[in-house]
Amino acid sequence: MTIASTTDGRVWFITGASRGLGRAFAEAALAAGDRVVATARDLAAIEELSAGHDGRLLALPLDVTDRTAVGATVAAAVAHFGRLDVVVNNAGMLSMGMIEEFTEAEARAQMEVNFFGVLWVSQAVLPHLRAQGSGHIVQVSSIAALGGFPSTGMYSASKFALEGMSEALAMEAAQFGVQVSIVQPGGYWTDLYASARATTPRDEYAPMRAELEKQWAEGSIDSEPRLAAEAMMKLVDSDDPPLRLLLGSMVYDLAFDISRQRMATWAGWEQVSRAAEHAVPAPTAPAGGAATERGAQPGTPPAA
Fold it and tell me: Looking at residue 224, what is its pLDDT?
């Protein structure tokens, strides 16, 4: 197999590239002259992008919840193009329903795609990026990671998990020259909601559902995916990309509103918070007894 020269533009690896934001990211990268490994469960919508791009698009089938398949697909991408420069973890799904309504299978399915799928891809690409001493992993999160909201709480949980893992990954990968960014989009005209899964509704939540539907009808703001792709190009072109990037005025304002509310609550309970901590010497284990477990924070050295 012939490996293309690294002078032919960056190599992108994009999950969930068949539609929505993933499709827009792939189109923008190709338009910039870069090469793209576009993955999805259904390749029909991706393969049509090949026309006119002179072999710069490699479409590969991938279910991100299959860790073995993820590793094999990443290996195939590197074998084909010789390297990876930008990895976009975009594949995701939305499960809607009140927390009480979720079955175990429904809750696990949400986490399998939005959290574990991202984890598997991040683990699979990192050895290649580390060996290169370069690379940029972009985790597509959501406005839902700013806070939990009625009927999308499990979706928020998956994105909160994604972001916590990605913050740690950013610190761990930086020593190898690998950058990590978390993108938090607002509303875009994709089929996320149209393809969403739903729990079996309980009658007790009918009034809340009616109110939510009214709010969404009156206040929904959705944009063209193209605008998110333009922001993505600016992000990966930056010499100093941020850990987090908000996409959209609504999500930008909401992020500040939520942060201010949290800071006000923390300040109001400051005395209680501070009173809950007072350093004392490590307890001495009784003769013949087991040592007391020490409630240390990560990075705290063991007691002498």
Answer: 85
Average pLDDT (284-301) is: 62
Contacts of 300 (CB under 8 A, 6+ apart): none
Token pair recorded at residue 96: 């809607």
- Do 42 and 91 contact (CB within 8 A), yes or no? no
Q: Is 130 exposed, middle or buried (0-12, 13-18, 19+ CB in 10 A)?
A: middle
**Interhelix angle for 225-237 vs 20-31, to 10°?**
50
Kindly state the tokens that stand for 281: 């010497």
Helix residue ranges, H only, 48-198 = 67-81, 104-111, 117-132, 153-174
Instruction: Please give the torsion angle defined by the CA atoms of residues 160, 240, 92 and 18, in that order, rounded to the nearest 10 degrees.
Output: 170
Buried b (16+ CB within 10 A) or exposed e, 277-293: eeeeeeeeeeeeeeeee
Query: Is-contact 137 89, C-beta < 8 A?
Result: yes
What pTM value is reported for the model? Answer: 0.88
Mean pLDDT of 72-87: 98
The residue behind tokens 């190709």 is 30
What is the distance between the alpha carbons of residues 61 and 81, in angstroms, rounded to a whole number? 17
Which residues are catalytically annotated? Answer: 141, 155, 159
All domains in the chain, ordered by first residue: 6-268 (3.40.50.720)
Whole-number Å distance between alpha carbons of 41 and 49: 16
Beta-carbon contacts of residue 38 (< 8 Å; ≥ 6 apart)? 14, 17, 18, 22, 26, 46, 49, 57, 58, 59, 60
